[in-house]
Amino acid sequence: MMPYNIALLDDHQVVLESFANLLATSDRFRVIGIAFDQPSLLAILDQEPIDVLITDLLMPTINATELIPILKARYPTLSILVLSGSTDPLLVRQVMQAGANGYVTKTADKAELFDAILAVAAGRRHIDSRVFSVDETVLVPPASNPLTDRETQIARLIVDELSSMEIANRLFISFNTVETHRKRIYQKLGVTTALGLMKYLLKRGFMKK
């Protein structure tokens, strides 16, 4: 499988180099370039196709909510993952409404960060679970599916009787990450078994019968 081309944007060189070194530990990613501001980023994006841009939220000359619409208009296939220290749901909603594909906090560990990158690279939305633990109702309307895109995906695989290890292998995530999602899914929906999960999803139309 070809690695995903990654570009990094942050106004701190130490942060950029640290992330570049971290991504280099996986053969799923190839860091094409690192940028300190908008002009240097555009130079990278114009030079070679980029699958995922990982960007800081707030920078001296521009912030992500202003930059994302510009990038989406110019590079419609580019997936954008915002990295921030904030778990403020209102701020996250602004970022997602601006067109970001994902949002992950700077407290995420290596596995969580890699999961987020793979999710947005595959065209899925990803929002750090820490945001939902603060105030999930701000991001998810009460009448909608309370699960995130990734949780819904895993829930369907659970209903299909895949084990946690099989799900991990299929989605290229760790076993522990699957188990964490499983517990969170059950807690959110108030179920304790895969059968209860299936009944819940069918009753509310979140999966086909």
UniProtKB/TrEMBL annotation:
Keywords on record: DNA-binding, Phosphoprotein
Biological processes, Gene Ontology terms: phosphorelay signal transduction system; regulation of DNA-templated transcription
Domain annotation HTH luxR-type: ranges: 140-205
SUPFAM superfamilies named in the record: C-terminal effector domain of the bipartite response regulators, CheY-like
Keyword Ligase: no
Originating organism: Larkinella knui
4-aspartylphosphate: residues bearing it: D56
Cross-referenced Pfam families: GerE, Response_reg
Keyword hit for Phosphoprotein: yes
GO molecular function: DNA binding
Domain Response regulatory stretches: 5-121
Name of the protein: DNA-binding response regulator
Gene3D superfamilies: 3.40.50.2300, Winged helix-like DNA-binding domain superfamily/Winged helix DNA-binding domain (1.10.10.10)
InterPro entries (UniProt xref): CheY-like_superfamily, NreC/VraR/RcsB-like_REC, Sig_transdc_resp-reg_C-effctor, Sig_transdc_resp-reg_receiver, Tscrpt_reg_LuxR_C, WalR-like, WH-like_DNA-bd_sf
